[in-house]
Write a structure and sequence with these properties.
With 279 residues, this protein is an alpha/beta fold. The chain has ten helices and eleven strands.
């Protein structure tokens, strides 16, 4: 069963086609980069897959996740709410609540699965807290569990967002420019965490990027958007500087960065921190 299927998806803003009859398929467990110059439609596409925005009201426009429709012809489908629970979202802005602890922010990934009253009061069991701590340990920031989220660096906040998606047990992870505001070292750590989630847990990964070097390094397949249409869909390794120049012309320069050096994986915090955080 296909993880993500999009059939002739279109979206118009103010008379301009942000997406123009886009069709694509992503298979379960794939790791796919979505690239394009500013305004190419990357964020718009990701928000349609997650059901955050609706397509043009055309009979052909359809988004399906794991065989179940999310939206069709400009309307959310019946059961879309349940389907969206399988989709984890990561944004450039992190979307953490700064005044809450890192642990509590990660635990919000459970809100779609726990009873509404308990979730509304942020009452979580010891087992749920242990689950969240293990997720923080996997992304290398378990030592920050009891800190306010606002005290974390940008890279740490993004890794907390990844841990939240782990706790959610999302089968598909959509990340919209997750490293755009990070320094190179933090960006590589985030990309390593995302890749590990795909390789270890089999999570389907679709990540929009503004830097083609990261697409070539971490993703076997890249989809390139240009003016709301798919200009390229194929092996990431084929996206040479010359190929990007052919696709985007002068705009290709904003997609090309010098190849970053390798950054060691962060060390895993001691497991002994678990009992302290969940007591």
């Amino acid at each position: 069963m296909t993880a993500i299927e999009i059939d002739r998806l279109s979206k118009t803003y103010g008379g301009r086609k942000a997406l123009n009859a886009v069709s694509l398929r992503v298979e379960p467990g794939e790791r796919v980069a979505l690239i394009g110059a500013s305004g190419s439609g990357k964020s718009t596409l990701i928000r349609h897959i997650s059901g955050l925005i609706k397509s043009d009201a055309e009979t052909c426009c359809k988004v399906t996740v794991h065989g179940r429709p999310v939206q069709e012809a400009g309307s959310l489908s019946k059961g879309a709410k349940e389907t969206r629970r399988e989709i984890g979202l990561i944004f450039q802005q992190f979307n953490l609540v700064g005044r809450l602890t890192v642990l509590t922010n990660v635990l919000t990934g459970l809100l779609g699965r726990v009873p509404p009253l308990r979730g509304g009061l942020m009452l979580f069991t010891r087992e749920e807290k242990l689950l969240a701590m293990r997720a923080l340990e996997r992304v290398g920031i378990a030592e920050t569990a009891l800190q306010r989220a606002s005290t974390l660096s940008g890279g740490q906040q993004q890794r907390a967002a990844i841990a939240r998606a782990m706790v959610q047990e999302a089968r598909i992870l959509l990340a919209d420019e997750p490293i755009a505001s990070l320094d190179p070292a933090s960006a590589k750590r985030v990309m390593e965490n995302l890749s590990a989630l795909n390789e270890t847990d089999g999570v389907t990964l679709l990540v929009s990027l503004h830097q083609v070097e990261y697409a070539r390094h971490y993703f076997p397949r890249t989809i390139a958007l240009r003016d709301g249409e798919i200009a390229y869909d194929g092996p990431s390794e084929s996206l040479s500087r010359a190929a990007l120049q052919d696709l985007y012309g002068d705009a290709s320069e904003e997609l090309i960065l010098p190849e970053a050096t390798q950054v060691p994986r962060p060390q895993t915090p001691a497991a002994a921190r678990l009992d302290t955080a969940v007591a």
